[in-house]
Amino acid sequence: MVAGALSGKKIGDVSKSTGLTIKAIRFYCDEGLIQPIGRTEGKYRLFDANCETELTLVKTLRGMDIPLAEIRDFLQARRSGQCKCEKLQGRMKRKMLEISSKINELRILQGEIQKMMENWQECGGTKENVIQ
Question: pTM to 2 decimals?
Answer without folding.
Answer: 0.65
